[in-house]
Each structure stands twice: as structure tokens, then as C-alpha cells.
Amino acid sequence: MALFGTNGVRGLANKELTPEMALKLARSFGTFLVNKNRFSVLPKVAVGTDTRITGTMLKNAVISGLLSSGISVVDLGIVPTPSLQYYVKNESVDAGLVVTASHNPREYNGIKLIAGDGTEFSREDEEAVEDIYFSEKFEWSDWSKTGEFHVDSNANDAYIHGILSLTDQQTVSGRKFRVVVDTGSGAGSLTLPVLLQKLGCQVLTIGAQPDGTFPWRNPEPLPEYLGEMSVLIRMFGGDLGVAQDGDADRAVFMDERGEFIDEEIMLATIGKFVLQKEKESLKAGEKLGPVVTTVSTSGRLTDVAKEAGADIFYTKIGSIDVGRKMTETCAVYGGEGNGGMIFPKHQVCRDGAMAIAFVLEAMAKNNLKASDFKKMVPEYHNAKSKIKTPGVDPKIVMKKLTKDVMSPQKKKEIGYVDAETIDGVKLRFKNGWLLIRPSGTEPMIRVATESKTKEEAESFIKLGEKLVAEKFNEINSFGNEKQK
Questions:
Q1: Is residue 4 a part of any domain in this protein?
Q2: Ranges for the Alpha-D-phosphohexomutase alpha/beta/alpha domain (predicted)?
Q3: Domain boundary residue among 259, 283, 298?
Q4: Which is the catalytic residue, given 68, 83, 102, 451?
């Protein structure tokens, strides 16, 4: 049984993710750290939460588990995930743990582990912690050597200062941007309005009070939840609209007309400006660093990288994989097409507030409107679908489906050019691509496509749904026959 998903451990709070489970997981984490540092001073871990009302319950369980292993704990309180990561990277702590379910609905919670450099735990280290969890071979500290407990309330201030230090504050302040902000009552409520005010913006906020019931909207900032922000942008004469998810590691944008800007467009457009800035700073003979993204990301970013002369690498879905590959390749930019952008000069993790500061700087320096971003990268059409497989493990469906579609016979029948299996199976056609993969956060299969026309993208979706249905029905029929 796998404990970690695409991004940490998540589940329904107090049902799937209980205090007992959180304590056991923290003991496993503590044991891993003690074993890793066997002949040195026992580690110190920074712990924080987003605003979910079950956060305090789980955080206290986590702290108990760490202290019982001899690990000292610094409680940062409510912080955006990138704020905690910035703290781990820059302060005298050895690792971090954040209690958050990110964009998941309010009834969920989760636990994410942070490495000593502020990046997310590698898949290998997650597996090591998972092995300890299931073997229950825990490190138990003597009563006199349990960890120490401290509180530090300054993490968010340091995080904001870190972003400002990498932003041309004078240029941004000179534009006196009007920004409408929807932090959705999440952790960004404590940081984003402050950051924007320090950048000289006039700020109008929605849901900027921390509230773990998320009364305004669910934590995921989907376009259909942002109608009020759209109206306020037009009423307020806003230059930009910004919304964050529950733990504020992602950001999505609306233009001055109150129209949503596709996350894939923003990922590629900001990449264009990052690469331009990097090229300007290169010395003679130096090569532009690469870009890293996932197999599900739009071809827009690929086109931008190629135009700039930068290499591009693809990974599995998940910021963990993107971040690790960025470190490995010394990438200058990376991210996912879900509002998760990574600026390695700041830190190698998704950072919604850093993305917002960079967008404002790009607008100020280039005298742009937010709507101009839509015109700066090639146009593609994307489509997505979720397919539940009741009674059948999605991974079993995917295993059989992948083997089937990779066969020469199926390749000829479907008519694709080539295929890759970095994450699920991705089929490339002359006019686009189709990606089928098991979800890492929910019990379902995700289908994503891209093409130059909307009709072609939707036809690829139908093909993907058909391929999944065929395998699901085949497995189901076999199971029913077996039961008879």
C-alpha cells in the first residue's frame, strides 16, 4: 500500500488522515532523520500549517511524534507552504513538515515533507519514510533526550522580504497597479496583501481572512469560483486579478477585463520573460540554462524554450519531480500548467507570491496590460477529462492499457507517431498529443490532450476515454466471470 501520492500524504481529515496516523508518520520521519544524522547533533524540524480547521489537531500530533524521536521542533504557525520552505532553506533547521492538503476541498488535509535545502522530499526519501512507517521500527528517545520545542512567528516576514529582494520594487511601485486579490481564506491571506502593499499596489481583497472552513470558495482557484473577482476587477478598474490555492504555492490570474488567463499561457509567458532576463545576464561563452516541466504541460512552453535556445526536460506530474530535475540540470525556470511556477533564484519550489511579483515586474518593465500576456505565446487548445473506475484499481487499468497501446498493432490502428511512458502513457500525433495517466491524488484516471484546434483536442479526449473504457470493461468482465 502506497502512503505518499503525487504531493505528500492526503486524505479526509479525521477519517483517512487521523491524528494517530499523523503521529505515526511523524515518528517515521523523525526516525529517518535520526538515522541519517546518527553521528551528529539531532535534527531540528520546522512545522507549519495552512488554515484548515483540522490543521491544529494534526500539527499537534505531528509535533508529538517528532519530539518523541528526539527531534527538536520549531512551530511556525500558519504559513504558506513556500514560506515554510524558504525558512528551512535559510534558517538553522534540518528539514520541514507542513500540514496542508493544498488545493483539495476543505474536508481534506495532508502532510508534506521538506528536505533541508527547502525542496520537497525526493521520491526515494519518501519511500524510506514509508518503509519505516509500515515496519514500525521507530526511534524512541529516552525521556531526558526528547526534542526541544520553540515557536517562531517571523517566517512570513522573512519570506516576503526574500521575494522583495529579487523584485525591482521601484519600477513596480511606479506603476501603482490596482490588484484584486482572492486568497480564498487560505494561508496566502497572511502574506499576499502585505507583499502587494509593499510593492506600491492598491489592493482590494476577497476572502483575505484566514478561515479553515473556506466559506468563500473551495481552496482550488478554478475559473468558475472566481466570478466575484472578475466583477470587482471591472468595478475597481483593476490592472490584474490574482487568486491562490489553500497553501498559496500556486497562483492564477485574470486580466484587466476580468477574463481568466489560462495557466498554461501564464507558465509559458512568464518563462519567456525569465529566459529573456537570463540571456541578458549571460557572459560571453555561457549557455542559457534549461527549462523543466511535466509531460502534461502545453507545447507553448516547449515553443518558448526552443525560441530562446534553451533545452527543455520533461518529468512526471508533480512539483517534487520538477524540482528535483531542476536541481539536477541547473534549470533557470520550471513549473506546471496549474499555476505552479518555480523560480530557482528564489527557491526550487512552486511559489505563488514570487510568481505574482514577477508578473507585476514584467508588466511594469515592458509597459504591458495583463491581457497582453495572452498574445505572446503560440495558441493551442487543451481538453481534460476524469474517469472513475469503480471497483477496479486505476493503476491496474493503466498497466493493461499501456501495454496494449504500445503494441505495433495498436499503434497502427490509432495512428500515433510515437509514445512515451514517463507518467502514464503519452501518445504524440502529427497534430497534437494525448496523455492518459492515473491520478496521484484521487482514485481515477486523468485524460489530457492538446492540439492546434479545439475539435482535434476534443477528438483526442474521446479516443482516450474509449481506450480507458475498453480496458475497464475487459477487467470488469474478467472479474465477473471469475466470481461466477
A1: no
A2: 3-138, 157-258, 281-377
A3: 259
A4: 102
Locate 251 and state its grid cell. 497562483
Same domain, 344 and 387: no
In a domain, 143, yes or no: yes
Please, what sign has the CA dihedral across residues 402, 407, 411, 413? negative
**Can you give the pLDDT at residue 291?**
98
On the question of pLDDT at 225 being above 50, the answer is yes
CA distances to 18, 161, 231, 243 from 401, in Å = 35, 49, 45, 37
pTM: 0.92
Tell how far CA 341 is from the center of its chain.
Answer: 8
DSSP 101: -
Task: For residues 28 and 72, state if they share a domain.
Answer: yes
Which letter, b or e, does each residue of 429-438 get, where b requires 16 or more Cβ atoms within 10 Å of its Cβ? beebbbbbbb
Give the domain CATH number at 228: 3.40.120.10
Closest-CA residue to 108 (of 44, 37, 198, 15): 15
371 three-class SS? helix
End-to-end Cα distance, the chain: 28
133 and 164: one domain?
Answer: no
- Do strands 95-99 and 240-244 pair parallel, antiparallel, or not at all (unpaired)? unpaired
Q: Does residue 93 contact residue 7 with C-beta atoms inside 8 Å?
A: no
**How many domains is the chain partitioned into structurally?**
4
E strand residue ranges, 145-287: 149-151, 178-182, 202-206, 240-244, 251-254, 260-261
Q: Are residues 395 and 469 in the same domain?
A: yes
DSSP alpha helix (H) spans, 373-427 = 394-405, 408-414
Residue 318 sits in the same domain as residue 408:
no
* Rounded Cα gap, residues 408 and 404, in angstroms: 9
Please say if the pLDDT value at position 471 is more than 80: yes
Same domain, 308 and 350: yes
pLDDT per residue as tens digits for the range 81-93? 999 999 999 999 9
Residue 269 maps to a domain? yes
348-381: per-residue pLDDT in tens? 999 999 999 999 999 999 999 999 999 999 999 9
**Total Cβ atoms within 10 A of residue 385:** 18
Q: Say whether both 32 and 124 belong to one domain.
A: yes
Phi, psi (5° rounding) for residue 363? Answer: -65, -45
Regarding whether 345 and 418 lie in a shared domain, the answer is: no
- Enclosing domain of residue 417: 381-483
Assess whether 102 carries a catalytic annotation. yes
* For the chain, counts of helices (H) and of strands (E): 15, 21
Whether the CB-CB separation of 114 and 93 falls below 8 Å is answered with no
Instruction: Report d(CA 158, CA 478) in Å as an integer.
Output: 58
Output the pLDDT for position 2.
80
**Which letter does DSSP use for residue 275 in this model?**
H
CA-based R_g, the chain, Å: 23
Evaluate whether 331 touches 290 at the Cβ level (below 8 Å): yes
